[in-house]
Write a structure and sequence with these properties.
The complex is a heterodimer of chains A (314) and B (367). Chain A has 314 residues and is an alpha/beta fold. Chain A is 34% helix and 28% strand. In chain A, a hairpin with a 2-residue loop joins strand 1 and strand 2. The chains are: A alpha/beta (314), B alpha/beta (367).
Chain lengths: 314, 367
């Protein structure tokens, strides 16, 4: 196995379900010991990509190498090297936290002594002691998530796949969860996360933005924000309806979103002075507003990347 | 305009109908279960027993004896499909379940015809099967044309011997077969639900990402149920002996080997159902759907000798039919599994087909 190379390499990865192309010629190169995110709306092909990478779904075409293994041919060998956290809590709700961990340790055929030691370590690391003997079905969202992560990492996998891991937990639990993920990468684990949350995507070392089966942007979140080929303008006004009407028909306007009394506009780069341009349009309608440039956020990157492609309205 | 409560109720009723129409399997059952019941009770079950497989031993071989055989055969209650050489072979065929009744005509048949004190022939009936005894007994008593020339006599001309259940108790016929019925209920429905539950709750989605293989998963899930099945077998057996005085004439080892084979076959059926049903509710429905014909057509409670050919073919497809045969053979007639090789073979074929079908339908990959 090549220790220095990428954890995952995929070329021309494609999957069709009947007439639908779920994943369309994806190119991936994911380094070891990093958290790599797949950001995209529902149905963009995140889960399908993730499942192809671990051999659960056979690609229609393309090649995959994961940890030096040829997937899907060597998918069975990969199983012991990877952990998988499903979107929905999928441990046994009628078994206690301890029984669930013991079962998973046996499934990964850990030696009894080693299993006990790993379960002990997991109890420490993920604070499972307070509910260790309770049926998993009675746990809160955050507790279930800690238990699921503990179960997925008992066998110390080199690769951890997380399918929308924090959709059912509160913000504090989500922060703790990410702390745990960084602790895992510090020990060399490669982590793949699929998500549609911007804050979650922003924590990744690098990410790919998917839209209708295609990777439309990829790179480190900071880099993607810096490279955004759009100008971000914020308009603060009491009369958001008037302001919207005033901007209607502006050709270079790519996106307009409202946040309370603020309008968040994305403009093409060919507008020389966007602030002045918008101010004059608003003044023409008698709308009072404060207009200023803003930093691009990851959401702007996402919106920019998933805009309808030229000549392809929807 | 309807009043508000009625409009809301109507909205809920319409929504309910919509949901019902989306669940294709439930919809099929809504139509399928009544039709199946109608077909089984209307056409399938018939108390007028006909065409009981029978054997005849004619050691006299005179014109009168042949006339007696033809006379009994013309009733169509029995079909003489075997002509064993002697009384021993006749008995062996009954024990192995190949025939269920036998007519024995002794060498001194002609002398007996004119001797009013002795019966001219003997009819042996397998008393382990419901309905057969009454039907066959009736034809021996009927004054049929072929029997003219017999001397008028006080005692019946044909002696009837009901074997393996001389007191002709229903419990003796039903209780051993009940093992099969109870196993069918629990094995098929429990296993189907146990497997479907994991899929419904998302556990399967996790399991397929682990090193567990499909075959390990299947066998691991089924093993505990084999234990459950053997415990149930023991319970019914003990209750049958203690409460209903059912004799155990065969070997317990043969009985448990047969039960093991049947349990495996029904678990296979449960597996197949689990690959079809999406929810636990659907698994219940499908389990019930297979259970109904099993109970009614297996010969457990109703004689299937009276059923039309088609229904008898359907009964042959059901594993319970063959297991009931094995149970009655081993427990009541003291048969060995070797003698019962035909039902054993049929069960084994069912097992292989069910497991093969389940394996084809059960994919480890998600797609």
């Amino acid at each position: 196995m090549n220790e220095s190379g990428a954890a995952i390499e995929a070329h021309g990865l494609t999957r069709r379900f009947g007439a639908v192309v779920a994943v369309d010629h994806a190119e991936l190169s994911i380094p070891r010991g990093r958290i790599y995110g797949f950001l995209g709306p529902n149905g963009s092909g995140k889960s399908t990509t993730l499942r192809m990478l671990c051999g659960l779904i056979t690609p229609t075409s393309g090649t995959i190498r994961v940890l030096g293994l040829d997937i899907p041919r060597q998918a069975e060998a990969l199983r012991t090297l990877m952990g998988y956290m499903t979107q929905r809590f999928s441990l046994w709700e009628d078994l206690s936290a301890r029984e669930n961990l013991e079962f998973m340790a046996s499934v990964y055929t850990l030696e009894p002594g080693h299993a006990a030691q790993r379960i002990g370590a997991a109890v420490e690391e993920y604070h499972l002691a307070e509910f260790f003997e309770r049926p998993a079905g009675t746990l809160s969202g955050g507790q279930k998530q800690r238990l699921a992560l503990a179960a997925a990492t008992l066998h110390q996998p080199s690769l951890l796949l997380l399918d929308e891991p924090t959709s059912a937990v509160d913000p504090q639990s989500r922060r703790d969860f990410w702390e745990s993920l960084f602790a895992l990468t510090a020990r060399g684990t490669t982590i793949l996360v699929s998500t549609h949350y911007m804050d979650e995507a922003e924590r990744c070392h690098a990410l790919a933005i998917l839209d209708r089966g295609r990777i439309v942007a990829n790179g480190a979140p900071k880099q993607l924000m810096a490279d955004l080929p759009l100008q971000v303008i914020e308009i603060e006004t009491e009369d958001t309806v008037g302001a919207r009407a005033a901007l209607h028909g502006l050709d270079s306007l790519r996106s307009l979103a409202q946040l309370g009394l603020r309008l968040h506009a994305l403009l093409a780069q060919d507008v020389a002075d966007p602030v002045a341009c918008i101010e004059s349009l608003l003044a023409g309608r008698g709308v009072k507003a404060r207009v200023r440039r803003a930093e691009a956020s990851l959401e702007d990157v996402f919106v920019g990347a998933t805009l309808p492609r030229a000549g392809q309205e929807h | 305009m309807l009043p508000a409560p009625l409009r809301r109720m109507r909205a809920i009723a319409v929504k309910e109908l919509r949901q019902m129409s989306r669940d294709k399997l439930t919809l099929a059952m809504v139509v399928g279960i009544p039709l199946l019941q109608m077909a089984i009770f209307g056409y399938g079950i018939n108390y007028d027993v006909r065409h009981v497989r029978a054997g005849v031993v004619d050691l006299a071989n005179t014109q009168a004896s042949r006339s007696l055989i033809a006379d009994i055969a013309s009733s169509q209650v029995v079909d003489f499909i075997a002509r064993p050489a002697g009384a021993d072979e006749l008995r062996r065929l009954i024990v192995s379940g190949e025939i269920h009744a036998g007519l024995y005509i002794p060498p001194d048949f002609e002398r007996r015809r004119i001797d009013a004190t002795r019966p001219v022939a003997q009819v042996i009936i397998d008393g382990t099967r419901p309905g057969v005894d009454t039907a066959v007994r009736a034809i021996t008593e009927a004054p049929l044309p072929g029997r003219t020339g017999f001397k008028r006599r006080a005692s019946p001309a044909i002696e009837v011997l009901t074997e393996f259940n001389p007191e002709r108790r229903t419990a003796v016929q039903v209780v051993p077969a009940l093992i099969g019925v109870i196993l069918s209920m629990t094995m098929v429905i429990f296993t189907a639900i146990a497997l479907v539950r994991e899929r419904e709750r998302g556990n399967l989605e996790l399991l397929i990402t682990t090193p567990v293989r499909s075959i390990e998963l299947m066998v691991g899930k089924l093993l505990p149920y084999i234990g459950v099945g053997l415990i149930q077998t023991t319970l019914v057996l003990v209750a049958g002996v203690v409460l209903f005085d059912v004799p155990i004439n065969g070997s317990l080892l043969d009985l448990y080997l047969g039960a093991g084979l049947f349990i495996a076959a029904t678990l296979g059926l449960g597996l197949v159902i689990s690959t079809i049903a999406a929810t636990q509710f659907q698994a219940m429905q499908l389990g019930f759907f297979t259970l109904l014909p099993s109970i009614l057509l297996s010969g457990f409670a109703f004689p299937f000798e009276g059923s039309p050919r088609v229904v008898q073919y359907i009964a042959q497809v059901l594993p319970l039919t063959h297991f009931v045969e094995i149970l009655r053979g081993v427990i009541l007639r003291g048969a060995t599994l070797g003698a019962l090789w035909l039902p054993v073979l049929k069960l084994a074929v069912f097992l292989v087909l069910a497991v093969a079908l389940a394996a084809v339908r059960f994919h480890k990959r998600l797609d």
